[in-house]
Amino acid sequence: MSDGALSLPDQTHAPRFTVAQAEALVAEHWGLAGASATELGSYQDQVFRIDPSDGARVALKIAGAQVERAVLELEHAVLRTLDDPEERPLGALRTPLPIVTLAGEEIVAVGAFHARVLTWAPGDALAGGGFVDDARARALGDAAGRLSAALAGIDHPAARRVFQWDVRHAAAVAELARDHLTDDEWAMQRRALAWLAGVDDGALPRQLAYTDLTANNLLGAFAADGTFTPTAIVDFGDLVHTWRIADVASAAYAAIAGDPARALELTAHVVAAFHDRQALEPAEADALWPVIAGRAALCGASLAHQVRSVAGSSEASAAYLDTFVARDDAALRAALAVDPIVARAVIRDACGLAVCPVGAQSDAQLAALDPGPLLDGIDRAALMPVDLGVGTSLLTERAWDDADAIAAALAGAVPDGAYAVGRWGEARLPGAGRPLQDPRPALHLGADLFVPPGTTVLAPYDVRVIADDGHGAIELESLGPGRAPILRLSGLEPLVGIDDEPRRGARLGTVAARAVAAEQAPLPAHLHVQLATTSGLPAAGDAALRAAWTALCPDPSPLLGVDVSAPPTPTAAELVGRRERVVATPQHLYYREPTPMVRGWGAWIYDGDARPLLDMVNNVAVLGHAHPAVTAAATEQFALLNTNSRFLYAAMAEYAEAIAATLPPHLSSIFFVNSGSEALDLAIRLARVATGRHDLLAIEGAYHGWTGAVFELCTHPQDNPGWRGNLPASTHVIPQPHPLRGALGPDAEPYVDAVRAACAAASARGGGPAAFVAEPMLGNAGAVSPPPGFMAAAYEVVRAHGGLNVADEVQVGYGRTGETFWAFEREGLEPDVVAAAKAVGNGHPLGFVACRPELAAAFDAHAPWFSSPGGGPVSCRVGLAVLRAIQSEGLQENAAIVGAHLKARLEALAADHPIIGQVHGRGLYLGVDLVRDRATAEPAAGEARAICERLRRFGVILQPTGDHDNVLKVKPPLCLTIDDADFAVDALERVLVERASTL
Ligand code: PMP
């Protein structure tokens, strides 16, 4: 390929038409008199949106003077082919079509420039979405693949041009832009171009390529929940006959620019989707990362040239270009940060190609070498693999952050005389450390032999030392026949140096006293044994890219003579598939693409890839996940006795006393149940038995559980969408007293009137109300506090009508709201029945009902009652442990302090982000009410879901709630720290900023 004729357009080539000129042009040639033109940002040409006085919107494109007419003819020929209604080669994706002038021409010469009018393609640019995630990366790859397949059969002489945007000419472009690049930029260009120069040009298939699948050129429809459905591809100005992979490279580069920290993962999605439409050959897969880097370099250099040499281009174009400068820089850096060998493995895996042929033959190659012992004086049989994976039972209570605790656990895990071995291919917690936004790689690529420091390490076969990092890691190349992988040892005090050739059985060094390789902290002293198909690979990789990493660093079991491989864990897709076959479908999952959750600790949850996620939604784990007191209480009592609640044992009395001590004296009778639904069901029965009445009052938008009786109160639009038609006449619904959207306004009195009316209606049906059932703070409505005085007045009215008042404290009770232990206390209420669950067992199925003794007595006269495991010994011990921990750890106070901080920070965030309409709630039960418009408080329902989906990317678990699914429900474990709260708000801020930005 010759770069000879390449030149970059400068300002003399740039069209500078004014809006008025554009309007005159379309009027004169296309008959669009009275149309209004708006200039859009563009690179080297000018684009105007034309809105005719009548008829459909079109685009006026004025090409730069350097663009030959033949190229525009090529573009039009391609657009006509792609638009063929018979073939529809792009499926549902649309493309623009040229519109002829009054004189029947498609192209009009205006001075040195050529103007065209094209149909307006439907949709919004993906760039407007602010980021690229897996699904969007797949959309980019799919569009690029369809396009590449559609272009394969088209040839045109004008496509065989020497062209700036042909990635093959990236080096020439860099030279031409050299004067406009900083030294740092130039250094990055050089690195990327060196990779590109290594591409085997002759091995890459060529065809007509579009070369410009950017987030600006892929249009689609954004649903409010963030899903993007592609509708069109625009801007066919960069067509050129070049490498076929130019298209997948541009799509991958667009994805990388959309989230540079996830460069490789996003590329894998782009490539897999592309490959489904247009299969990549192995040579193409192997060349792709250097070509992506080349594309990144090309974009950076071209942009620098454009921005810094073509001063005075139109304002719209200058602003448009500005947005690219930082983006291109970050994306190029991200591409260069990845080892191309690792990228190649990931790309091959995404294409379903053999990931790493050398790695695949590793077993046979090693067997041929017949390796001798690696450790002097330690028999292979003494090596015992142990589980250090995310789900290990060896390490609890965050022991994974503490080398001494790990050492103790390992010593206890193997018999005397044996040595623990950390397994290959395991995603591990040690090293995950304090949760980070970009966690450390967790997938261990070697076996860790926890043998005594000083143990002599021997050469298992004849080797040459090819690397020594000076920090206890060496790499050894086999001198035997075949291509055995490199042997990488770390945690060593080496006795050999570079280029030494120790023979089989020769001493390589001794195991160091401390784990010296920084990447393995905080493990105790050990020898890390890793096979690697190439030099310089790290000890751990990204668990999300497991297939690639484990192929690059094959299983060292054949070397060690012991199976040290971790058993495979099911993938998310496998688990979802299995669930779908046997788990009843109404049991929905959080997240569009859920990942398996394995472990919890405090306010954090770790997924199967050892990725830490801050659990901001889990009101069940009130103390935090895996609380040791709860674990101990449950295991100790399980080991002693667990039976139904009709035997006599101490725990029930003790627990009931402890509960009663948290409640006002009149609520001294406790029933034990298994769940919130059961608790509310029982509460309703108590009320009906005691009053002899049937009718119930509930607040609109409530959820109190799923049993037949309780569901008759359910008016939550998500949980009972058809409630307006399916409630019995005995249910009386009070309009929700909501500060932003209450049907009767923000004040209490109209809602109290509604309670009066409901009581009157119940009386009119005969009898009157049995009970008013309500959460004292409306948790399911999104942590909404009713207007001051409402609850107390409602209780009064109901009582005056002979009904009972039931406080549902399943969500809002147990210290969560900070100021008071029970939410009803803050309202000054005196409920007749209190129902509690969720937090009560910290996840153990347990709840209770507390009531006036006379209600229990009335019930007893009617029927006995029991719920088998509810008040059983284990449940009571667990319940006691939870209550005591809340008290001894000051969790209610913590909820008040951290909750106030969190609320203040969220409210401060609202100042910059109008989508935050109001922050409801108190303590650690908050609701971030998202609105489309503060004036109307229109709920931003889909947006809330989109934000929650995206928050997981930044390590935070949150879910929407509320009648409109527009409230972020903030109800984390009460052990949440100020740091955790800041982490969550920072992540939310990142997501909100990202949403408002354009790629
Ligand atoms: N009451 C309220 C206020 C609830 O939020 C729930 C559950 N979300 C229940 C009762 C029912 O509890 P469970 O799921 O334990 O049956």
Overall mean pLDDT? 93
Report the β-strand fraction as a percent range: 15-25%
**Within the largest sheet, what's the order of strands?**
12-13-16-23-20-19-18
Bound ligands, named by name, code or SMILES: 4'-deoxy-4'-aminopyridoxal-5'-phosphate
Largest pleated sheet? 7 strands, mixed
Rg from alpha-carbon coordinates = 34 Å
Shape: flat
Percent in helix: 25-40%
Give me the count of strands. 40
Going by helix content, strand content and strand pairing, the class is alpha+beta
Low-confidence stretches: none
User: Roughly how many Å apart are the termini?
Assistant: 33 Å
Number of helices: 29
SSE layout and pairings?
Blueprint: H1 19-30, E1 36-40, E2 46-51, E3 58-63, H2 69-82, E4 98-99, E5 108-110, E6 113-119, E7 124-125, H3 134-151, H4 170-177, H5 183-197, E8 206-209, E9 218-222, E10 228-233, E11 240-243, H6 246-258, H7 263-277, H8 282-309, H9 315-336, H10 340-350, H11 357-360, H12 362-369, E12 383-386, H13 403-413, E13 419-422, E14 426-427, E15 443-444, E16 447-449, E17 456-458, E18 463-468, E19 473-478, E20 486-490, E21 492-494, E22 507-511, E23 527-532, E24 540-541, H14 546-552, H15 557-560, H16 572-582, E25 597-601, E26 604-607, E27 612-615, H17 628-640, H18 650-660, E28 669-673, H19 676-691, E29 695-699, H20 708-711, H21 723-726, E30 731-734, H22 749-764, E31 769-774, H23 790-800, E32 804-808, H24 823-826, E33 833-836, E34 847-851, H25 853-862, H26 873-888, H27 891-912, E35 916-922, E36 925-933, E37 938-939, H28 941-953, E38 956-957, E39 959-961, E40 967-970, H29 978-995
Parallel strand pairs: 12-13, 27-38, 29-30, 29-31, 31-32, 32-33
Antiparallel strand pairs: 1-2, 2-3, 3-6, 4-6, 5-6, 7-9, 8-11, 9-10, 13-16, 14-15, 15-24, 16-23, 17-22, 18-19, 19-20, 20-23, 21-22, 25-26, 26-27, 28-34, 33-34, 35-36, 36-37, 36-40, 39-40
Helix pairs in contact: 3-6, 3-7, 4-8, 5-8, 5-9, 6-7, 6-8, 6-9, 7-10, 8-9, 8-10, 10-14, 17-26, 18-26, 19-25, 22-23, 27-29
Bound molecules: 4'-deoxy-4'-aminopyridoxal-5'-phosphate.
4'-deoxy-4'-aminopyridoxal-5'-phosphate (PMP) binds at residues 675-677, 680, 703-705, 775, 779-780, 808, 810-811, 837-838.
